Amino acid sequence: MEKTSLVEPDDDSSNSVLDAMLSSEQCDELEEENLQDRVALFLTKLRSNSSQTLGAVNFVVDHTSSLISDVVGSRQRKSVSFLREIGHSESPGGQQLLEHFACAAQPFQGFESEYKQMQYFTQSGCFVQPEEVPLPGFSYTQQRDPSTGTVRQVAVRDTFQRVPLKPLLKQVLESPGMMEKIFEWQNQESTALEDFRDGTIFKTNELFSKELSIPLVLYNDDCEMVNPLGLKTSVHKLVSFYKTDDVKTYGINAVLDTVVCDIEDLELEGIQVETKHFKGTIKAGVAQVCGDNLGLNGILGYTTFLRENRVSMVSGTQRGFERTDSLGSVSNAQQEKCSLNKLQFYHVTYNVTPDVMHDILEGVGGYETKLVLSSLIEQKLLTLDQLNNRLTSFDYGFSDGHNKPSAIKPQDLKNPDGAIRQTAAQMWCLLRLLPLMIGDLIPEGEKHWELLLSLLSCMELIFSPALTAEAVIFLQHLIEEHHRLFLELYPDRHLKPKHHFMLHYPGAIRKLGPLVQFWCMRFEAKQGFFKRLSHVACNFHNIFGPGYTTFLGSIEDFEKVKCGFEGIPLFSDVYLPLWIKCKGTTYRSGMTLFVSHSADGEPQFATIQNIVVIDSKVKFIVKKWDTVGFDRHFFAFSVSPSSALDVVDIHSVDDHHPLHVVMSLKENENDHCISLRYRLF
């Protein structure tokens, strides 16, 4: 191959080359000014990535810095050689270029160690440092002398960790777009119960109803940091910000007093917020305290021995199906006065939040599913092997595949008072899809099967994100009918306390709005962060999956749906990802969506054919289904395929949860079925 030599150009051409190299000077200077911020963003993403220890982060910093230094150094040497050949090595432009190289060669300067990284995050105001707060007493621990090897007891002050609420909330409220969302939330008008602001507690609270304020939800639950079956259980048990053993020693108020001081300041003084669209003071107060029944009893000052506590927190009435035999005021059940009662706009007697996740999915649902399945097996309508075969072979689709229920063991059905062992997400999946799995084996009208369908009727309203006043009244009727049927079918069994809690759900919905806004599902999922210690859950909001860029007009069947892309040129570049994640929900081709309601109230479903991204706006090309009707025996909607295509915006669908279409198991029928997660209005 013929080699070409570098010929020295004239002055004009050499100047043009150097000008071209420095033509983006302003952009480069802007990047250099933001270089520290860019490196800090890189480090925060690295530190928040799951499975990354701090040692691994420092390892990446060291070796990435070395790699960049080598690459930039190589480019720098070639550039210096070129500048010498054109006679500009000593010119101001040449020196400036070398300075850019020197800066680019050390991007992690100032971030070399964990100490320097934390120093930068703190000084930049982007990190709120937790504070260690002492408790009244000491505990004793063993300490080994490294020089002699002897072990001695050392008194260590008991402490808990506190993250100051005011600066933390200030950062959240001043985040881009946050205040706009708050104003949008406050200005929403609704004729149904769709949010906490639609409930009576919000409307009668002097802080929330009259001022610009933020309702806070406190969460309390034990978090076991080690293997729950191991020897160290309870030793390392935490309750969000303190050790459980410390609370047993000093009482919950020793911890809550500090939290109460923070919230009192938020109630009275508020937070000074300065954003592009708002400058002023925003106050905040406690709306509700959430947690499982044991955790709530602990933080609200009730006895934590549930079997001894014969008083319901939400009503002060004796547990059981009947609700009329009052035992007196709620204070009769309190073990100690709760510090939260010092707050101006909150009292524990206003805390009516039920724990629908533990009550239903890890309580009543698992218990009754076990009883119903045992009864069906005893009647020889199916066998356990048949059930497990259908559990393992059922088509769960993308939306429920990661919550696939585990096989049911014989001992699970024999335990007289226990429930089927599944996680909450698995139990929700099992309850919703069980009629589609085995409904063809069960005669219509079978009493035990009707109990399961009755529970599902209650669940689709309890888990609904919006309810009408009429639906709440209907829910009260459904729950009472369900309990009566349970006692009729199992007269030798008693209703459990969690059955009783269900009776208060309609009243709680009227006061709070939809109960799923206060359940523990998302809070407990976040506990994985603490259980993995430094392994943090990833932040995957609005992340696009792998795909390709194409012309809008080249999409298959575009002519049938082009009306959905009006105003967009035919030859516009669009992105067709294989999947997309928006606000925590993953969408991909083949998933089915609850698109809208028809004029007569029937749900309209459609399956995603393509995902189209145009200027960060997401649209779905979907194939519609014709809704045949609701089949109560299978507790699902029957649908038939259609050739009609349509385009829907991701934000226009009635429900953001993807669904899955399965074939009906009825003989001589080709219908398809779709099971909803909850009732939509």
TrEMBL record:
It comes from the Eukaryota. It comes from Culter alburnus. This is Uncharacterized protein. The lineage of its organism: Eukaryota, Metazoa, Chordata, Craniata, Vertebrata.
